[in-house]
Amino acid sequence: MGKRKRNPIPPIGVQPNIKPSGWDARLYQTSDLAMNAIEQERAQVREKTARLREERLKAEQAKIEKRSAAPTLGEIAKVVSRMKTSRVDQKKG
Questions:
Q1: First to last CA, the chain
Q2: Domain ranges of the chain
Q3: Is a pLDDT exceeding 70 seen at residue 17?
Q4: How far from 30 is each of 23, 25, 43, 44, CA to CA, in Å?
């Protein structure tokens, strides 16, 4: 087998004249379609993530509101003291 003949390297400062073949054009077109599909998928993921983040924030706010509706320490202390007095009454009786 003979050596493969390479294209000569153009002198410095001269741009090589490269013409894309039909195959290259199809490849670039396919890669553009693939990149567009990837961008669309990323946009959908971003939207879904934003929606989930909003839902999580709403759930956390609902939890905080439920906690604020919980009894205060003073109310808990009153209930505990009532329980203690009722136990003392039961022991006496």
A1: 115
A2: 22-87
A3: no
A4: 10, 9, 20, 21
